[in-house]
Each structure stands twice: as structure tokens, then as C-alpha cells.
Records
---
Amino acid sequence: MIQETGPNHPTSLYIYTDQNSYEPLARIDIDGNHEQHIRYFHTDLNGAPEELTDANGKILWECSFQLWGKRIHEIEHEPIEQNLRYQGQYLDRETGLHYNTFRYYDPDIGRFTQPDPIGLLGGLNLYQYAPNGLTWIDPLGLMNCGIAGSAKWKGFNPKKNSLTGKTGLQGHYEKHGHEFGNINQNQYLKRAKEFATKPLTSSMQEAKVGNFLIRYDKNTGEIFVDHMSKREIRTYYKDDGRSKTPFQDAIDLAREK
């Protein structure tokens, strides 16, 4: 959703948190007098709107949801309609279904109403939204991905460490690059971004701790840690097999930061 308009609705322009992201940040409403009013979205950890406020922080709209997106209660403090739901979804108020680009989603049952257009590439269950509605998203209705998969990562911290004189990429490549075979620094960065944005599989886990997000694949041993608000990669490495709980170890380390 970029813009919407209608005879009984102000023209609304939507702004998202990042390029290629489906998480709403704000919307600009233009009324009949051509005056612009900016509204800000407040979302849950998975990017679904929970509140809409004006420029002064006054709550205009709020809604609470069950795990799979079914409304518990919705309150319009002012005559304003807000139809964005899970990332990439738009509520059809006549049917109660969520338009999800390639098909419709039913929040009452937590399933799509049509089979996946890409068939088994989206998983064995052709009607499933995602294994977990709290940390997975499917903005196009084609293939689910985690929170990390919906973001466009800038890379490692470009600033040089005062002690080592190396940038974040240089330092982490020297420490972990060899774990991925004979690859150069640019290939290491490319692999990190590809792992961060690939669709989640049954062997992968993802967790969010404050501003940090951790992703782990038990089949390959890959571990990725990033700073969500900065869209910055913090580290990317392979589990060396010494720990019985590498994913939990990465989570605990993020909690200490």
C-alpha cells in the first residue's frame, strides 16, 4: 500500500520504516481543504500496527489482536479508519478478510483462503500463514520470512574501532571469515546479508531481544546478530560445535549488551 483515496476518504500516503520494508512508520492524510496531517504508527515486534497517533502523541486509533491477527477490540478515538494489519495486509471490512497481495488471509482461523500460488516452495501446508505469527511474516502471501528477512541491511559498522583501527566488517571478517571457507571480505558480507534475508526454514530459529535480532540455522551452524533500528549487522559466524545451546548463547550475549 503506497497511497489510497476515495470519495468519502481523505487521500492517504503511507511511509514505511525502510526501503523494501512492509512495516508502516507513518501516513500523511490530506483533507478536503488540502491540509496535510501526519499520523504515526506504533507497531508490535512483528511490525503489525497497534496504535495510530497524531504529531502530538494523541492516540487516534488503537487495536489489540490475538496471535494470528484476529481483532480483540478496536477503538477509534476520532473518526479515522486504519486498515493495515500484518505486514503487507489490508483489511477488507466487508468480508473481514485481509488482502495479502496474492491471496486473502482469514484472521479468524489463522490461514489463507486459497492455496499458495508457488505450491510446495512455500511449504507443505499450502494454506499456512507461517509457523509462528509472532516472529514470522508473509507480506506477499507467497513465502514466509522472519523479521530479519523483511529488512534491508546496510552492513557492518563502518566506523573504525579505536583499539584495532579496523571497521566492523574488517574485524568480523578476520575473526570469522575462515569459518565459511576460502572467501574474501566482500563475499563474507554478501553471505551475511543473504542469510539474514533468506526465507526461514524448519531448521532455523529467530529471536528479538530489545533492538537486537538473532537468527540461527541448526543445519549449517550459521548465526547472525543485528541491530534492528540501525539496520546494522553486528556479527555473522558459524557455531564451532563446543556449545550445546549456540542459539541461546547468542541470545544471552545480546541481552548483556
---
Amino acid sequence: MAEGLDGREFGKSDFVLLDEVTIDSFMQNLKLRFQKGKIYTYVGELVVSVNPYRTMDI
């Protein structure tokens, strides 16, 4: 897994992997991933995308 064994460096890539499912843990994980440039996060089969407010090379 590229994000590390437990997701500490970039947060969990899928919210279903959170140890505690609360609004606070959801937002903390989303904020950490955004700060690390990871704008896409799964919730099972769905994808949450955060606007990076910058030009993307896609």
C-alpha cells in the first residue's frame, strides 16, 4: 500500500478503513489528505473529491 501500512502519512484512502466513523474523524482524514495533495478519497465504491484550487495536470 503506497500510503503506508496504517495511513498515518497521507490519511486513509478509503473512509471505510477509519477506526472510528465520526464526522470529526472523517473531516480530519479529509483535511490531512488535502494537505498532502491527495484530493480523491473513497467511501466504499464512491469517490469524494476536494477542489485543490490550483491547476491540475490531468
---
Amino acid sequence: MKRYRYPCLLSLLLYITILAPITYAQGGDSPELAGLEPTLHFSHLTIDDGLAQNSVSAILQDSRGFMWIGTPNGLSRFDGHRFVTYRHDPDNPHSLDINSIRDIIEDEQGRVWIAGREGVAIFDPLTDTFTPYPLNINRPPGPENLGFFSIFQDSQGHIWIGGPPPVGLLQLDPTTQTAIPYFRRPDNPAGFRGGGVWQMAQDSTQNLWLAAENSLVKFDPQTEQFSYFPADPDERRLAALVIDSQGNLWVGGVLGLYKFNPKTERFTHYPDSPTGINRLLMNETGSIWVTSRDGLFVFNP
């Protein structure tokens, strides 16, 4: 597989988590990691433009057109011209109480949910205020507390939170402001035992799929049963997940990109794919954008 490299900084308007050179690769008859045209233009926005921090961990475009950029040092909102940055202010009870941000979503009511190291918060655009979401679960205090990795809203409007053990998988009920834990415990021996949850997706039959440690996990919300599908035995972590129009699951991990066929329950590993994958995004044409420690790739299945 021949590789071409173009040293170019990545735009925040693409779904990125790292700043790295753009890379592409071409193969024979196999699915390709397709090239980005050398003339493709990228804008580079940094702290000099008002961004909270140059390292970006999450990004969302909401229904009003705002770009929300999560960083390890606060949340920035971009209107196409300027940034507004939100951080914790101890003198303001309505400020964002999360500085290290991992994931961002918008719910059906237009509220923005933020998950991070310190917890979960909700932004109300009508009042321009943040409200912390109470999560009464047993999390270890101090530096070993890794917080929450992912947040997801399913087609029924349920909010799900993924994180490291003992968080695993939680379902939130915004009406009662409670969190339903699904991790394994004495009163729930059939609970989730897949370790940390890094990303989630929902298929056409309402199953919830989890990228969790070295396994892909299917959760049936009707039966509340988990099914586990281990990837490569040497795979240490599956951190990214998307579902294509045929129902195949594309999964990114430390060892690269996998395709999982839920009918055959088999993985296909693409050994020439980038390693250390941390995010996948499928666009309207079916191409998959891949961010990894090796750079930004576009994959054409």
C-alpha cells in the first residue's frame, strides 16, 4: 500500500481530536483509505483565535449552527466568527462545572449535554446557564477518577453515559434526575462486565452497541441482556464506533480499523489501517473519517 503525506493542519470543523499531518493510502481491490486532494484547504483555529485549548477532545454542531468544542481546559462555542469559552467559575453557580471535557451531544429539546472528567452537565440555550446532572454512583475520588468517556441519546430519547469501571454503562432519566447503573454488582450479576465504554451507537432494531475495552458489546434494552464479541486477542481497547447503511459496525481500536458483521458475528481487521484510532465519523456519502495517532484518514468502504 503506497502512502502519501501532506503536512497540513486540521480544521476544527472536521470531527477531530488531535492535530497531526493528513495521511492517505491507496490499495488494490480492497477497501481503500482514500486520499485527500492536495489542494484541500484547512483552516487552523487555536487559542490565539479564542479557543479554550489547542488540544480538542470533542466537537458538536448543534441545531442552531453553533460549533461546540470540548477541550481538557474548558468548552468553547464558535459562531463562525468568534469563540465564547465556558469554564468553571466558583462564584457563579450556573457556570460549567466541568473543565476536562470528553464528549458533547444535543438532545431533542436543543439542550447541550457535556460529559467529562468531573461529571455531566446540561446547557440550556434559553437561559445561557449550565446545570450539573447529579450522578449518585460510587466513583473513586482523586486523580484515579477518570470521569466519563462518552454520552449518547438513543432514538427513544434516552441518555446513556459510558465511562471506566465502575461506571461502565449508565442510563439517565432527566425527568427524575436519576442514573440507572448497568454495571455488574451483587444484586445484578448479569450486568455489564465489559470494562470501560468509549463510544456508543444504535442499530435499526434499537440495540445499543458499545465500544468497550477489547470487545464490541450489544445491549438489548428490551431484555436488558448483554452480548460480548471479542476483537483481536491483542487488542487493548476499542474506542470508536459507527454503523453503516447496511448495518455493519465499523470499530476503531489500538490495532486499527475493524468491520463487524452482526449477522455472521465476525470481525474483519484491516491491517493497513491507521493504528491508535480514537474517533470515527461517517459522512452522507458513506465515507468514514478516521482520527488516530497517525493522523487524519478518509476510508471508502
---
Amino acid sequence: MILIFIATGAALPVFLFGTDHAVFRATTRWTNHMSSQKYGGSIAPRERINIHYVPRTNDQAAEVELPLNIVVVGDTKGALDETPIDERQAVSINKNNFRSVMAEVGIKTTVTVADKLSEKPDGEMSVTLDIKSLDDFSPDNIARQVPEMKKILELREALVALRGPMGNVPAFRAQLQALLDNEETREQLLRELDIIDQK
């Protein structure tokens, strides 16, 4: 048995539905998320949907609360799936396997964004991102998946490293300054960092 309901506005509904052997009562309760009150014995917070099961067999009157399970149907991979719908398997997701499910699904998206790295005023670049965890949405991890931005990120990390203990060694600083003062070695260094085109 499947129940689908839509609630709008401040007045949230109460549903009664059942079979010959049981009666179900689905209620929605809304309280402040910051409330310090406990759940009052419920398996879900009061701001969630609570579904109670009242069996009619053997004159039992005990009320049993059922967990809320939601089925989500949609294009979550961001890629074409040739598998027929009736052959697709449902994937159970919970707080314990969320990360592993994201890694196994193979989420990938391709977007076109403005090219701010080139000198073209209206330039665009295509970016393909592989999403294996929520950490992949962080700015640094997104940059590492874009070759042009990855080079800049690595250069920034190299410059930050120069401010560490190695950058305070006089002999090292003198050698680095000598490399930068020499035009030939400076261009070679820039080519190694992929800042200028290889010749």
C-alpha cells in the first residue's frame, strides 16, 4: 500500500487509511528546530512526519510508530542510462552508506562556464566534474578537476611552500634569485610550471 499526500500552508493534515486488519494514522507535527524538547518517545523529531500503526488483530490497542521511508525517482546520475526502468534496482540510502553510494553511482556533470583565465572577453570553457563525495563540491577540489585551474592551484601551493622553512635558507634564496635573474633559466622554469607554452 502506498500513500501519497501533499501538504501546503500552515495547517498540516491528518490522514486515516487502512485495511481490514489495521488502521494507519499519518500526522504531521511542526515545532521549532531549536526547541530543547525531547522527541517524547517518538523515533523521529516532531518536525518530521510520524506514521502510527494500530493493529486490529486479537483486540490489540497498542499503537506502533513506523519509520518514514521515502522513494525518490529521478535522474540523479547526470548521464544517460540505457537500462529499462522495470529492470532498474532500487538503492537503499542511509546515513551509514551515503558516501559509498555516491562513489559507486558515478555522478558526472558537464557545464559550460565563462573563461576568466584567458584574455578573450567572451570566452567559454567546458568543465566536466566527477562527483564521488560531498567533498568534491569544495572550491579546491573543483579546481583540481579543471586542468587550467589545477596548474594555478599547484603554483600557489609552490609559492606558499617558499614561505616556509626552505624559503628562509639564504643559500636557497640566493640560488632561486639567480635562476630568476637569468632569462634562459627563467623561461625554462616557466615552461616546467606550464605557465608558458613548451617550445
